[in-house]
Design goal:
Length: 345
Amino acid sequence: MDSLSYKDAGVDIDAQDEALARSKEAIRASFTPGVLGDVGAFGGLFDMAKMGFGEGAILVSSADGVGTKLDVAKRAGIHDTVGRDLVNHCINDILVQGARPLFFMDYVGTGKLDPVVVSDLIRGCAEACRESGLALLGGETAEMPGLYAEGDFDLVGFIVGAVQRERLLDGSKVAAGQTLLALPSAGLHTNGYSLARKVCFERLGLALDAKPEELGGKTITEALLAPHLSYLGAMWPLLDEGLVTGMAHITGGGLPGNVNRMLTDTDAIIDRSTWEVPGLFRLLVEGGGIEREESFRAFNMGVGLVIAVAPEDAERAAELLRASGQAPWTIGRLVAGTGDVRFEG
């Protein structure tokens, strides 16, 4: 009887080692003063005190995936940008509670491990971590033949941050009479891709290199793979000055499904006439015959973040955001209510 190896069963340990070796320098480049140890330990170690957090700090964590945006990345053969998407999405999810990210961990699952693809995925994560000042502390790469189809993979991330208790944004500071500011998205970010893919590739039959008029010279690939923005750098000066009472990261569920998450005894009035919906969303809505209300639930419609501030702080908040390169606008207001999001305009 011929002897069998793990590789004969579809798991290539050498390929895993190669993927890690290709990624090590990018991972190490993301290390911050809080990291203890090196790449390859069983568990990642992190010293919060070395990052300036002492007694009274609250840990904030989140986990997410890139969703079916991965399918576009696979079609285009571009794999590093989805790593950035994942990190930036997770950063924003804890930022809206006032937390500063400390470290990130990734998970890559695949049927047959391609060292180049996997190292690109991890490198994208590592570079996004480095740019936002958090460490890629560890992760897992799993080769599971029979569970994933040939060429298929998944990418998931886990983030941990911290906030001093008195600076936590938990909805208690949000009140009627406050102003809502918005920051633009860079496109779909990481939500709505199942519908977007159906419209672009099935309903409209567009190729990856197609340049519909609505995209202003960009290809479908460029528009759909535009990286999810991190709002950490733009928002931190506002958080430092205590200007923010609440925030909503506009992800799955759009404006109505995310702004409501920061509300308790208030309603948000969103004025849709305050911004021009970007061309990509117009292409998707018109090309797919998507009803207006559905479009605002499925897509972010050009809004990446919504911020609640006291009316007397709105101009200072906008000034700081403009100084960071952002283009904020007043998107609405808060009134007494029960936690609903209502549209006008």
